[in-house]
Amino acid sequence: MTARVSPPSQPFPSEIQTFLDARMKGRPPLWLFTTLVHDPRLFARFFAGSLLDDGSNLSLRNREIVIDRITALSGSEYEWGVHVAIFGQDAGLTEAQIASIASGAASDPCWNAQESALIAACDQLHAACEIDDATWTGLKAHFSDEAIIELLMLAGRYRLVSYLTNALRMPLEPFAPRFPQGRPVGAAMLDGNWPRQDQAVARISPAVPPLAPSVQARLDQRMKGRPPLTLFMTLARDARLYERFFVSGMLDKGNLTLRNREIIIDRITALSNSEYEWGVHVTFFGEKAELTEAQIVSTARGSATDACWNAQERALISACEQLHATCDLDDQTWDELKAHFTDNAIIEILMVAGSYRTVSYLTNAIRMPLEGFARRFPDC
Prior knowledge:
Elements: H1 14-24, H2 31-36, H3 40-48, H4 60-73, H5 77-87, H6 95-103, H7 113-128, H8 133-140, H9 145-167, H10 213-223, H11 230-235, H12 239-247, H13 258-271, H14 275-285, H15 293-301, H16 311-326, H17 331-338, H18 343-365
Helix pairs in contact: 4-5, 4-6, 4-7, 4-9, 7-8, 7-9, 9-18, 13-14, 13-15, 13-16, 13-18, 16-17, 16-18
């Protein structure tokens, strides 16, 4: 397999090299990390959103079970192998458990009840961007609300990482194990019989003011006098997770136009059935992105082949649809992206798509009530 985007030549900028040296602790830098060096902004955002620090609401073992299951379900042999190699022993994972994560099920006898709940949640998020009542109840028996929020963010982040490693065709690290024989069975596609989001009762309540001064200051800066979104207030329950969410945001000026960015966000959140986030973005940014009514409807109910899109936009929507379905991009879609976008822009496309899959996990699984001002999905 040949990498679609190779790392830049060394030497790297001094601040990036210093960061990599500290991160890798004497080991050679990972291909993933050096590929992101192409764009210092994306490099910084990627690491700003990291959830591998010591302040976690999850134990190292539980964190690694989530990461390993999500990357296995997403077909990221690269990232699965890196985490098994670097953290598997510290997480106390046995060979049977490592094999089960890759190709087994939550019901395998090697897991206790808490771990089975984690794996079942990962399977459902992968299959349906949601968590059903039985699995939610299983999580609540073992984890705090803040830990569940972190679980959702962690699962989404490593779906994003899988988009990068898969679509960029990153060569496997030589020190990392390969998938065992067999592939993840995953979760059967759920029946989709979820509560309507305009009728759902939130599973986790937002934070109650007064908020920590740092949280309130960032919220005031973001909302610019408007009432805070339920999503933001829910994240405000945990100042660490709140900060990670915002510092890794992708809404500033980057390698994509505002219009292209919003097409990605609207299509990913619609595919993920996040009426909450789709409606917020269509309302806040639809006019600025110059999306017509036909195009707004198409992001929710149409496809890349709809006549309202030009060739560049069709390539974006096709990429979103493939990432949603397979966590990868085939050669035709990759070539179509390359005809319109730089390598750095394509990396950003993958990161934006992964970021808003993460947001969809949060809005859907927590059953966030729709914002009163936000647009609803159009009728089929």
